[in-house]
Automatic annotation (TrEMBL):
Isomerase is among the record's keywords: yes
Catalytic activity field: [protein]-peptidylproline (omega=180) = [protein]-peptidylproline (omega=0)
EC identifiers of the protein: 5.2.1.8
Protein name stated in the entry: peptidylprolyl isomerase
UniProt entry keywords in alphabetical sequence: Isomerase, Rotamase, Signal
Any GO MF annotation of the entry: peptidyl-prolyl cis-trans isomerase activity
Ranges of residues in domain PpiC: 179-278
Lineage: Bacteria, Pseudomonadati, Pseudomonadota, Betaproteobacteria, Burkholderiales
Annotated Pfam families: Rotamase_2
First-level EC class: isomerase
Cross-referenced Gene3D superfamilies: 3.10.50.40
Family: Belongs to the PpiC/parvulin rotamase family.
Domain of life: Bacteria
Length: 322
C-alpha cells in the first residue's frame, strides 16, 4: 500500500471534533479577537512560552479590571460574572501540560477564551440545551462543555465539497510534495546557549529523545521531539515548506540520517535543535485511496470557518465588561 503524504496521514477523524470547545475556541480567540467595540481592554493573542518546562511558574499580579466588574470576577458577559476561580483553573490546566508558564500574556489569552466560552454557553442555554439528555448525563465538570458542543454541532453546518473540489485539493497538495519525505526530531529552547549545550550533549552520544524530554519547551517533548513525516520541494523556497520553518526545512534537506545540526536554528524567538531521524522516497497515494479523507478534511475546514463566523457574531452582539 502506498505511503500517504503528511497531510493525508494527519487528517482529523470527525468534523465535529473541530467545534468541540477544547479545540475550536482557543483557535477562535486567536483568529477572531474580541471586537474593539465590546472589549474594554483588548488582549494580545497568546505568545509562545519560551521558558523551559522545568522553570517554576511565578504567578503575576492580577490584571486590573474596570469598575463594572465585581470583586472576585474577571469579566461580566451580558450581566453574568465570570469568577476568578475559572481563570485560576484554566491557568492551572495550561501550566500542568508543561508547555506554558503563568504569565500576564497567558492569562490575557485565557481570559478571552473564557469570555467566548460564556457567550456561547448563554446562547446554548437560551435554546434549552442545558436540559438535553447528553448534558444531564454528563459529569458536573463536563456539563457546560457538552452543552456548548451540542449546540455548535446543531448550529454550524458544513458545505459538502464537490468531486472537482476534492480533486483540486489533491492536485494542489501533491504539487507541493518533494522527492523525499523527512522524519524530524526537534528540541525547542528559549536560550541559544542552552541550545548549544544540548547539541554538544547530542554529539557526545546522549540520546536525542532524552534531551528533548528534559529541555524542550513544546509539547513534542513528551514523545522525544519526534514529529510527523513531512515532504517539501528542494531547493527550499519560503512559503513552500509544508508548514516547516524555512531554516529548519533547509537543515533537514542537508542532514544525513541520524545527523544533528551543528548550530541551533533561530525561528522567531525560539532556538531549534534539529535531528533527521529518517528519510525515504516520497510515495504519493492515488486519488481514489485518499479522496474520502480529503473530503472529511474539507468538511472539517468548513465547520471550523462556520464556527468562527458564528462565534464572532455572538461576541459582537454581547455586552462584555472586563
Amino acid at each position: 500500500m502506498s505511503r500517504m503524504s503528511p497531510l493525508f496521514r494527519t487528517l482529523r477523524k470527525s468534523a465535529f471534533v473541530l467545534v468541540a470547545l477544547s479545540v475550536a475556541l482557543p483557535r477562535l480567540v486567536q483568529a477572531q479577537p474580541l471586537p474593539a467595540d465590546v472589549v474594554t481592554t483588548p488582549a494580545p493573542p497568546p505568545a509562545l512560552s519560551l521558558a523551559p518546562a522545568s522553570t517554576p511558574a511565578t504567578a503575576p499580579a492580577p490584571a486590573s479590571t474596570s469598575p463594572g466588574v465585581p470583586a472576585g470576577a474577571i469579566a461580566v458577559v451580558n450581566g453574568v460574572a465570570i469568577p476568578q476561580s475559572a481563570m485560576d483553573s484554566a491557568v492551572s490546566t495550561a501550566v500542568s501540560r508543561g508547555n506554558d508558564v503563568d504569565t500576564p500574556q497567558l492569562r490575557a489569552a485565557l481570559k478571552q477564551q473564557l469570555i467566548i466560552r460564556e457567550v456561547v454557553r448563554q446562547q446554548a442555554a437560551r435554546a434549552h440545551y442545558d436540559q438535553r439528555p447528553e448534558v444531564q448525563q454528563a459529569s458536573d465538570a463536563e456539563k457546560v462543555d457538552v452543552e456548548i458542543q451540542s449546540w455548535l454541532q446543531d448550529n454550524v453546518h458544513a458545505q459538502e465539497p464537490t468531486e472537482r473540489q476534492i480533486r483540486a485539493r489533491y492536485n494542489n497538495v501533491n504539487a507541493e510534495l518533494g522527492k523525499y519525505e523527512y522524519k524530524p526530531q526537534y528540541i525547542v529552547l528559549a536560550d541559544q546557549a542552552v541550545a548549544k549545550g544540548v547539541i554538544a550533549q547530542a554529539k557526545a552520544g546522549k540520546p536525542f529523545d532524552a534531551l528533548a524530554r528534559k529541555f524542550s519547551i513544546v509539547p513534542s517533548k513528551e514523545n522525544g521531539g519526534e514529529m510527523p513525516w513531512v515532504s517539501f520541494k528542494t531547493p527550499v523556497v519560503e512559503g513552500k515548506t509544508r508548514g516547516v520553518p524555512v531554516e529548519v526545512a533547509r537543515a533537514l534537506a542537508k542532514l544525513p540520517v541520524g545527523g544533528v545540526v551543528q548550530q541551533p536554528l533561530q525561528s522567531g524567538q525560539a532556538w531549534v535543535v534539529v535531528r533527521l531521524e529518517d528519510k525515504r522516497p516520497m510515495s504519493v497515494p492515488s486519488f481514489d485511496t485518499v479522496k474520502d479523507q480529503i473530503r472529511r478534511q474539507m468538511i472539517a475546514e468548513s465547520m471550523d470557518a462556520g464556527a468562527a463566523k458564528l462565534v464572532k457574531s455572538l461576541v459582537q452582539s454581547a455586552t462584555i465588561v472586563q
